[in-house]
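Design job #97: recover the sequence.
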């Protein structure tokens, strides 16, 4: 186990802390909001999820990609990728703070012990380890691949798997040594574009969405070897664990659908198709587990989808190019980053 990492609540369920309503004392009382980074508008739209209404739209840095909860749950960070900055948001007050200079912050994660923030510096071909509060650089790690973008950690927190979307590769990274241990070339990598990464409930495998191959790679979390491929839908992109830890929601951006995977059987059990079509990208599940909030990347909208029926509840107009939205707060003891990966 990674020293300083909160131990799992259950040995057979890495997502056991994410049950519906299981909010940390840190976030209790915070207003529930949906924060939508509009990458082509250089703004963040704030939505009240109870009324499905836009409250305001706030200018931020150039090309915001994701809104990321900090490890300690107290701050949301807007990743202004081409603006080379992170804009802090206080989720208790809704106040947008002064941007902090960080080079090429396409995506942002936190080590499970809370010691480091990790920037996925895609254009710079780097993983950058920073102080999680000041965002000052502690170490830069060159990566032998193109387009580092998403990641998730093993159950013990000592290693993490990183996807490289432009070279069809995955990286095994040692959390403690902060170095790349292994480069994994996906089968037929010239035709692959790996995206989001998520650890299975039992911690035995990682699922990796592949936007060009239209499905999921299953990667052994012990040996970091590719085991098999599961077809989902065109443009498989984002991965989200349901509040009961049983299913994985897969957004198929190229066909306007969400595939639902049973993580015990590793089979697709149903597919939700967005009424009228769409481009579901990144998002999160409401604290009560009832609504899946996801951005419509190419349609300038946000979708609110029932997790019980898969029915589209609302389609809300936002800015241009909405990407890694964050609904907050969510259950969990600490955040591993991205749009809200909580354990």
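Job complete. Output follows.
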């Amino acid at each position: 186990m990674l020293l300083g990492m909160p131990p799992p609540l259950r040995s057979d369920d890495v997502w056991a802390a994410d049950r519906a309503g299981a909010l940390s004392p840190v976030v209790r009382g915070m207003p529930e909001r949906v924060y939508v980074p509009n990458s082509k508008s250089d703004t963040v739209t704030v939505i009240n999820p109870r009324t499905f209404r836009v409250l305001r739209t706030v200018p931020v840095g150039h090309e915001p990609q994701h809104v990321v909860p900090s490890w300690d749950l107290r701050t949301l960070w807007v990743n202004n990728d081409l603006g080379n900055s992170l804009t802090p948001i206080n989720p208790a007050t809704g106040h947008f703070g002064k941007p902090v200079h960080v080079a090429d912050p396409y995506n942002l994660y936190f080590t499970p012990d809370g010691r480091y923030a990790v920037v996925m510096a895609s254009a710079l071909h780097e993983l950058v380890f920073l102080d999680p509060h000041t965002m000052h650089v502690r170490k830069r790690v060159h990566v032998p691949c193109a387009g580092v973008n998403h990641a998730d950690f093993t159950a013990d927190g000592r290693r993490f798997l990183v996807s490289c979307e432009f070279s069809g590769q995955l990286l095994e990274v040692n959390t403690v040594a902060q170095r790349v241990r292994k480069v994994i070339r996906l089968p037929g990598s010239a035709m692959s574009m790996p995206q989001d990464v998520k650890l299975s409930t039992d911690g035995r495998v990682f699922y990796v969405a592949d936007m060009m191959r239209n499905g999921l790679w299953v990667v052994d979390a012990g040996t970091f070897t590719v085991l098999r491929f599961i077809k989902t839908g065109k443009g498989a992109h984002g991965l989200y664990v349901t509040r009961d830890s049983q299913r994985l929601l897969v957004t198929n951006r190229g066909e306007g659908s969400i595939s639902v995977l049973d993580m015990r059987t590793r089979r697709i059990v149903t597919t939700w198709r967005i009424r009228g079509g769409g481009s579901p990208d990144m998002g999160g599940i409401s604290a009560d587990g009832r609504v899946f909030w996801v951005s419509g990347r190419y349609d300038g909208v946000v979708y609110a989808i029932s997790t019980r029926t898969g029915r589209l509840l609302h389609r809300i107009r936002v800015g241009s190019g909405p990407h890694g939205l964050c609904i907050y707060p969510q259950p969990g003891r600490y955040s591993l980053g991205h749009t809200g990966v909580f354990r």
